[in-house]
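Budget justification, computational time. The allocation requested in the original proposal was used primarily to generate structure tokens for proteins on the priority list. As evidence of use, we reproduce two of the resulting records. The first is shown immediately below.
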Amino acid sequence: MTLLPPDVLADRLRSGLLSFPVTLFDDDLRFDEPRYREHLAWQAGFDVAGLFAAGGTGEGFSLTPPEVDRVVRAAVDEVGDRVPVIAPATGGTALAVAQAKAAQDAGASGVLLFPPYLTEAGQRGLAEHVSAVCRATDLGVIFYNRANAVLTDATVAELADRNPNLVGFKDGVGDIERLTRIYARLGDRLTYIGGLPTAETFALPLLQLGVSTYSSALYNFLPEFALRFYGAVRRQDRKTVYRLLSEFVIPYLDIRDRGKGYAVSIIKAGLTAVGRDGGRVRPPLTDLTDDERAELAALVQKVS
């Protein structure tokens, strides 16, 4: 299912749950392609609407550009005929443009545009950055609204007018007024994706703001639980949502919040807890302690 027209990609992504697969490393912290492919094949075996390769949960920030390309190509080759694979575009404008072009060459279905690295810019500069990436590819582009790249509703509307292949808005801020303004102004012109960690925590209230889907890191190691939770959200089954939050998600957050960067580390530990060997994270992230791993494993056992 590669090289989807942007509008088809948008419809596909809004139709179901999304996920960011972890990137698996060997004992020397080199990309372990066979294990990564095995993980993706398992992930694609469930009813997921899209997989984002080399994203935040995939430690894309720790990968070199050649590694990003290798990860994306492995993902497309392994599961691209079954699930849309979204590739990252990161860093400054020149690098983001190059990665968007590489994503299309690799056969990816779309591009997730991350904030420019370690710099701040006004709305005009951010608009030019987004437009340059959109012009560089025929793929559908999803803008990741977070950190030093937070757009106003006016800027989002301008970008949507200028760039037909801008099809998605992923929010990692959670500003209710901003989201309300954007949806009121653009309606269903864009697909709105929840991008706050851990997304399940915010999924039900954000649904009322037009955010119909989200990227679930939990899906990496508890795909059936993640899909059950997403189904309850879409049905607006508050009783089930809050029961699952209380039983698993909130205790899970308590472990996640003990260390900076644990939002990624805990996912790999979760994979190990279900018998799939998540391995280690690359520095500057750190792995969970042995006690935290044991606590997580006991929690996972309750919902597995």
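The second record produced under the same allocation is shown here.
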Amino acid sequence: MTNNNPIGVFDSGIGGTSIWKEIHDLLPNEKTIYLADSKNAPYGQKTKEEIVALSKKNVEFLLENNCKLIVVACNTATTNAIWELRNDYDVPFIGIEPAIKPAANNSKTQVIGILATKGTLNSELFNKTAEMFQHTTIIEQVGYGLVKLIEDGNLYSPEMTQLLEEYLQPMIDANIDYLVLGCSHYPYLIPQIKKILPDHIQIIDSGEAVARQTQNILREKVGFTDTPKSEPIFYVNSNPAVLKSILEDKYPVIEKEF
């Protein structure tokens, strides 16, 4: 089965590029279109209705560009809007959820931490998943301010360090042995997080699993491209310099209203 249309990926900002990179590494020949809704970031403090509306706007832009499959590279958008997206649009969707299951199943202390947005932690989907692991204590922490600092280009600022120490120390004190990153922006914080956490605490994010699921859906339902490797396209509606920096200026970034 062959399908030369692009894979669409969207996030509330630049964080979903951590997911895009995993997809691009696994499927380098596939054409990809990445949409960064940085103007409306972060989604985590918005209402469910606002998140659904913004997600639909992003999807319609990607469908106008003939995307064959759409990856919702945002935990908040997935946990609040994935049902509505799958119900309203005739295209396969792949969402991203906090990787609670592998953390809970492998934890020896039976205490795990999750750092996520308010929108994700308050969502029905997240809470249904968490309820499946009654024998594991889940220390939840809203990452207030982290996404905004990343979106503003302040990844390595003293304020970022201070917030991470404030959020992670109670988890360390509670004896977690796994930290789940529940926001696609947060993998960019891993080098700093590792400086704070003891060495025995494992960090888990969802990027690799999402890439494998993308490959599975292409194989089973949509079709792979048979064209040579093509350059990805990145769209952003605010502050393109930060997206360019995250991409290390390897790819062109198009600033566009959507």
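A brief technical remark on that second record: Residues 5 and 66 are 6 Å apart (CA to CA).
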